[in-house]
Design brief:
The chain is an alpha+beta fold. It has one domain (14-336). 33% of the residues lie in helices and 18% in strands. The chain contains 12 helices and 12 strands. The protein has helices spanning 14-23, 37-46, 67-77, 84-94, 101-106, 121-125, 139-154, 190-193, 222-234, 249-258, 262-271, 277-282; strands spanning 54-58, 63-66, 112-118, 177-179, 202-208, 212-215, 240-247, 274-276, 298-300, 308-312, 320-327, 333-336. Strands 4-3-5-12 form a 4-stranded mixed β-sheet. The chain has a 4-stranded mixed β-sheet with strand order 6-11-7-10. It has a two-stranded antiparallel sheet with strand order 1-2. Helix 3 (67-77) crosses helix 4, helix 4 (84-94) crosses helix 7 (139-154) and helix 9 crosses helix 11. The relative contact order is 0.15.
Length: 341
């Protein structure tokens, strides 16, 4: 095994290790799991990788993500070895040119890396798709998302006050990972929509702003609750390249009984997130004021219905929708998770 971050330094005890990683900016501010050789080896084994295997190459900064580097950060984040295939697929996704990792690592926008998992692997390894799916309490969600954030710092160099110029940032920069709930959706799962089989497992990674929770209580017709959602999306302005709409099971029951499918919902939202150029000007939500004929033309928040991702999940009670905007100039990427059999 090549010498790694886990073996360059020997520590007297746990506290000394923590101080080293904190002082040298090798963590997110939270304590880490010391990446011992045994733990790193087990993490590599979870994905059937050798230390020197190349997981991905990011072109903008010429960064090569070696399997050992990915494993070290996954250990530091607290991952189990069985989570490693998800982390590997997510690393491959963010390394694609259209994801533009460099831009979203340096922008003042302060986005996090949202790892959205679709497929049976979510249940197999315990990725939460139900109650508190975007919150605390589940090791897989917390540590897979955190592994990606630590890699962004340690392997890519996105350090606060240096490369990372986030004006505010948000909690998703610590960790942002959850799964689609196959049991509640009345349509094909995201992985199928993205061109994979229903038996496959995928990650879709977004450069995600903080989520906005919208209440649609007292409304059961799609035109009613989707109208509320559309109004909220309009309030986000024209700076998003994509929108993720996470719909709770309570609302999905209304969707199921109404007979609306995914395409119809996307079309409805898209048609209702247009404003005329003069309306955008009046709300100061455009970088370059519209003029001439554009004053009376309609312009949407995102370019097409295909830029709206619908996901089902969350707790059984509560008529809520969560809206997550993806930073402009970045496209989400979906990768299949390679699972050892």
């Amino acid at each position: 095994m090549t010498t790694s971050i886990s073996e360059k330094f020997k520590f007297v005890d746990y506290d000394e290790a923590q101080e080293y990683y904190q002082v040298n900016g090798l963590t997110d501010g939270l304590p880490i799991v010391p990446p011992t050789e045994a733990k790193v080896s087990a993490m590599l084994g979870g994905a059937g990788l050798n230390p020197s295997d190349v997981v991905a190459v990011e072109g903008m900064r010429g960064k090569t993500f070696l399997a050992e580097t990915v494993a070290v950060n996954a250990v530091m984040a607290g991952c189990k070895p069985e989570y490693m295939p998800v982390v590997v697929a997510a690393v491959q996704a963010v390394s694609e040119p259209q994801f533009n990792l460099h831009a979203n690592s340096t922008s003042t926008n302060g986005v996090g890396l949202l790892v959205l998992v679709s497929g049976p692997i979510a249940k197999d390894i315990g990725i939460n798709s139900g109650t508190v799916l975007m919150g605390h309490g589940y090791r897989a969600n917390a540590t897979i998302g955190r592994a990606m954030s630590l890699l962004k710092v340690n392997a890519y160099g996105s350090v606060p006050h240096d490369m990372d110029k986030s004006t505010f940032g948000h909690a998703g920069q610590y960790t942002f990972c959850f799964a689609e709930d196959d049991d509640v959706i009345p349509w094909e799962p995201l992985r199928v929509e993205k061109g994979f089989s229903v038996d496959a497992a995928t990650v879709t990674v977004f450069a995600a702003n903080s989520p906005l929770q919208v209440s649609t209580h007292n409304y059961s017709q799609p035109t009613e609750f989707l109208g509320i959602v559309s109004d909220a999306i309009q309030g986000m302005g024209m700076g998003s390249s994509e929108i993720v709409v996470v719909i709770s099971p309570e609302i999905l029951e209304y969707v199921r009984s109404s007979g609306w499918n995914k395409a119809r919902i996307k079309d409805f939202i898209f048609k209702n997130i247009h404003r005329t150029g003069s309306e955008w000007n009046a709300r100061f939500r455009t970088d370059h004021p519209f003029s001439g004929d554009d004053l009376t033309r309609g312009f949407p928040v995102v370019d097409s219905p295909d830029h709206i991702t619908l996901v089902g999940g969350g707790g059984a009670a509560g008529a809520f929708v969560s809206i997550i905007g993806a930073w402009g100039g970045v496209s989400s990427v979906t990768k299949e998770i390679s699972i050892r059999r």
